[in-house]
Structure formats: structure tokens, C-alpha cells
Design brief:
The complex is a heterodimer.
Chain A (H helix, E strand, L loop, with lengths): L10 H18 L7 H15 L1 H6 L1 H5 L6 H20 L9 H7 L3 H22 L3 H10 L3 H21 L7
Helix pairs in contact in A: 8-9
Chain B lengths: L1 H19 L5 H8 L5 H22 L10 E2 H18 L6 H6 L4 H25 L6 E3 L3 H5 L3 H21 L3
Antiparallel strand pairs in B: 1-2
Helix pairs in contact in B: 3-8
Classes of the chains: A mainly alpha, B mainly alpha.
Chain lengths: 174, 175
Amino acid sequence: MLSPKDKTWSPYIAGALTGLTVVLSVLIAGHFFGASTTYARSAGMLEKIFSPQHVSELSYFQKYTPKIDWQWMFVIGVILGGFISSKLGGTFLKQAIPPMWENRFGPSVKLRAVLAFTGGILVLFGARLAGGCPSGHGLSGMIQMSVSGYIALFSFFAGGIIVANIIYRRGGRG
Amino acid sequence: MENLIYGITTGILFGFFLQKAEMLRYEKHVGAMLFRDMTLIKFMLSAVMVGMIGIYILSDAGLVKLSVKATVLGGNIAGGIILGIGWGLLGYCPGTIGGALGEGRWDAAWGILGMLAGGALYAEVYPFFKDTVLKWGSYGKLTLPGMFGISHWILIPVIIIIFLLLFRIIEKKNL
């Protein structure tokens, strides 16, 4: 039996339950999963504090109003879900650098910060250009058998495979 | 308000399942890109199989509406590869990164700051992309059954068989 106190569940089971959750979410609330728009909206909300005039002039923020919506709360929920599950399973940790990264690049927090920040910029820029992220295009797109979902997911992996293989070409197992 | 409560509840469930499947770890994302650890593929394709059957049953019954994203080859491919490059560096994606932070992986915070910067940057240059890349290879809200002109109930079993064969290969190779 599955217990919330287990350290891990089979990815097949957890994945299937995720699929079921998508179905129920669409049925009850009318929302497929997605995440990247929330970070764009949040950027707009933060910018608004300093320069409301500028934000109101940008056509992107006219299309995607900087506001708290279903998806914004969903993204907050994922933070809580990760926290609750790791606390119940006893796997919560305090980790500044992933072990695999440390094997390859050493213990510099600064280096990890700079490259993770850079990665974050590319991830969101790319997601907005592609029209979705691995949740919106990958999960929700492939569930609906949308052509854009399959194309985007292949492109995500194409970029990822190139970079990961450049970084870890010489081994460096985690 | 109800909508926001549904949002946070659904997010908690998703974060919970992601955490239990170890999908919030850098190693699982980069491991899939290196073909060393296919946990991400197992998780994702299992979700897709169940979701696909459920959504199309409900859609046929008229209980839910599909929300298909437009196929725009320029945006999907160029944006997809840019995202992929960043994903390879960061090791988290926009859907999982919050959960990684929740699990105590503090490096996720740098990624979240980067993503906010990336969102701000995209909003600045959006008008340029709107008139160029986002017009290249535009096919509208296209689905695979629509493209092939066949019933989704023919395609769904085919996709499921392909995914199951993929799982078999992955398990045989102990990935």
C-alpha cells in the first residue's frame, strides 16, 4: 500500500496519479497544468511596484495581465506539496548544491548560483517563446495529443541533451 | 476565490506526487538528458497515458473542453531549444522548481530569480517575436488525430503501446 510516509513511490504510480489529478482538475476546475505563465505574470507584478507605467505599456502584459490566478496558486501549491511530502517521508533536506553538480564543478555556491540563474533566464524565455513548459506543453499537451506538445517536448530534450552531454561528457556520475 | 482554492489544492497534489517520484531532483532531470536515469520519462509518460484516456472519455461525453496550444514551428522549436539549454544548466523546470525549493533544495531559488528575470526580458522583446518567429510555420490548434485524419480512439492505443514498449526497454536496461 502507498503511504504518505514512504520515502518514495514508483514513478509509474506517482505519474498515473498525476494523470488522474490532471483529469479531475480539468473536470472540476477546467484547468490543465502549466507553470511558466505564472513566472512571467509574477515578473510583471514585481516590475509594477517600480514602474507601473512601463508595465501597462507592454503588449505582453496586456495579453497576460500580472495578477494572481488559478495557475499562480497552483505553482504555490507545488512548493507546499514538495514540502509536505518530503517532511512526511523524512526526505526534507537543506541542500545548496546538487551532489552530481558538486562532483563536476566542486563546492562553489557562487558558481551554482550564477549558472542556475542563467539557466532560469533561458528556461523562462524559451518557455514563453515556445508557448509552454514541460508541464504545459509536455504533460498537458501530450495528454491532448496536441502536435505543439510533442514538438516542444522533443525540442526541450534536444536542448537539454546537448547541454547535459557537454557538461558531463567525461562522466561525473551523481 | 473557488478557482484559487482549486489551484492551490491541485498544486499541492502535483508537488506531492513529484516529490514521491523523486522528480524534484536535479539528478533526475539531467539523468534523463544523459540517458542514465529515465525516472522522468516513466513519470511523465504514465501521467500522459492516464490523462489521455480520461480527458478524451470526458471530452467525448461533452464534460470537458480541450485546450490545445497552437502549433507554431518557429516558436515551439526555437523556444523549446532555448528552454532545453536552460533546463540542462538549471536541472529544474518551471513546474518542478517550486517543489524543489519546498523540499529544501536552495539552489532552486537562483533558478526562480532567473526565471523571473527571463519573464521580464521576454515581455520587453515580445513585439519583435510576435511579428517574426511566432509567425513561422503556424498551423493553429492542431492535434495528432486531426493531422492524420483518424479517430483519437485509434491513435490512443497506438501511443499507449509505444509508451509501454519504451518502458520495457527502459526496465530491461535498468534505467
